[in-house]
Design a protein that fits this description.
Blueprint: H1 2-21, H2 35-43, H3 45-66, H4 68-88, H5 91-94, E1 103-105, E2 116-122, E3 125-130, H6 131-137, E4 139-144, E5 147-154, E6 159-163, E7 166-167, E8 170-171, E9 174-180, E10 183-188, E11 194-196, E12 202-204, E13 218-221, H7 222-228, E14 233-235, H8 242-247, E15 273-278, E16 283-287, H9 288-294, E17 296-301, E18 304-310, E19 317-321, E20 330-332, E21 335-337, E22 342-343, E23 358-359, E24 363-366, H10 367-373, E25 378-380
Parallel strand pairs: 3-14, 16-25
Antiparallel strand pairs: 1-14, 2-3, 2-13, 4-5, 5-6, 7-8, 9-10, 10-11, 11-12, 15-16, 15-24, 17-18, 18-19, 19-23, 20-21, 21-22
Amino acid sequence: MKKLFYSAVILLVVFEIANVYFIMPMPGSQEQNTIDLAYFLYSKRWIIRGLLFILLLVGVKSAWKGAWWLTLLCLIIPGVVAYMTHFKMAADTMFYQPKELQLVPASQSKISLDRIVLGVEMNGEAKAYPIQFLGYHHQVRDTIGGKPVMITYCTVCRSGRVFEPSVNGQEEIFRLVGMDHYNAIFEDRTTKSWWRQATGEAVAGPLKGTILPELPNVQASLETWLSLHPNSLIMQPDSNFKQAYEDMSDFESGRPEGRLTRYDTASWQDKSWIAGIDLGTISRAYDWNELVRKGVIQDMLGDIPVAIVVSKDKSSLFAFQRHTPAQELTFRRDTLTDGEMDYYLSGLPLDTLGRELKLVPVYQEYWHSWRTFHPETTRYPE
């Protein structure tokens, strides 16, 4: 019976560590395809704990008679480990959504114009969310143009996405549970399925394979966003998270030196920045250094002519479908031009009789993240 007791103690400690190891950025935990194992352990955690606790009870009397002090120690250790992994190291106890979500007009905003935001415009209403705040919260829930939205950001992938938080036609609540392949994973309240932030796809659980509807958004400096949407509302800091925001103050510039959020200024390294486009049948990555240097890159994605644009502030990213392969866009001061027609960075022509450029979804991301979740991607130039 003593062996049963000590075996149960060891298994319980191993289980509690494994339960958090596979969904947190620990050495070696994020490089393997262990999402199904992680989901099994996490979803069955109370059943496994219960079974191991029964084994403890069966053997505790015999163990106590042999060495009460060792038995007591063996009872305390799993409790401490469980507390640390379940409460101190759990993602949703480390990162919280805003307690006070406040958005104000530009005239009342405290946010510096050079801060990078995720901008969303729907049904005539525009809002901007600084990634300095999003990077800590991971998700912010709001309503834009009467539609519920879920604004997400993962600093370890440098990926911002905006989703309609709707599952099977019903608005859903999500919480952060950890990460897989260095990307944030959310769990929905109803089915307990796990959803990947970078793609909006359920990767484990009853809804595996389902994809959240993604909503158009732009990553830009606040100044550039306001030039396109002067009536936009802007997310303000929540005073409850002042220190967390301060810790994120250098993230967008690429100055952090930590292993997970550093910036490699060389091209095509794991932590290099890229701009990525995914049109479903084809995806491509563009070197951020080349984009900043050129301002505009013309490309063909299959038979679709596109232009990828980084504005003069070196942080605002756009992509457009060109009207024809022969149309080439360049910058003329702060506007785009093809030599005959000038365009705002929204794609709208300055001449109201002109034809609009269609916006194409484009994302800034770490190269390691983009190639992991878009395994068929090519690099520009091919």
